[in-house]
Amino acid sequence: MVRLGVNVDHVATVRQARRAPEPDPPAAALLAQRAGADSIIVHLREDRRHIQDRDVKLLKKKVKRLNLEMAVAKEILKIACEVRPDQATLVPEKRRELTTEGGLDVAGNLEKISKAVKRLKKKGIFVSLFIDPDLKQVIASAETGAQMVELHTGCYAEAKSKKKEDKELKRITMAAQKARKLSLEVSAGHGLTYQNVSRIVKIPEIEELNIGHNIIARAVMVGMKEAVREMLDLIKRRR
Length: 239
Ligand code: PXP
Fold this sequence. Notes:
The chain is α/β, with parallel strands linked by helices. The chain has ten helices and eight strands.
């Protein structure tokens, strides 16, 4: 069975839009876990645009497996070493991006990333690197001592033709095979949806999928009727 990690950053985005207590990412995480999610993912960004430090600390206490996405940044590394999530996924981070764009350039930053991997592993944290499905990056990832790579599926998800989608799927498959040969565990994510996930699931080397946006989008839609019904019940009871 392929494991599913659910990213709840968007729950925090809605909360932060009002600086309100709700919706609460740890509460959403527990519901996702109850539905069968194998891990919960949050990205503690340096600008704290959605997930806050308090969310990470609470999640660590409440969920069975916490995967913290994080930049290789001094302040965030310190927090990760203190909180000790079950897993840390190192990602590139740009201030003005809407979401993580592209994978980490591990080959170009081997020393810096290897140091971060070593520091996190010393605290007992399992380390994954989010990379493009590129053989050079897979090989460099193995050299850092990381235990896993997460292959970026964004180009696959955004492919506008069957030919391009096939090409991207092949790149992901080859990167996954290379990673396994180098004894790295393999996960994949970014842009995966209810429509495009099935071809990725068929790649045998991929053991875990990390999905955020499309699940949260679906949760809003399937939950809408119930939420409106509950409010209407309350209003009607008051008259
Ligand atoms: N994996 C990583 C490393 C990510 O940065 C993200 C986005 O936060 C995801 C997976 C999930 O992507 P999406 O929200 O498009 O499902």
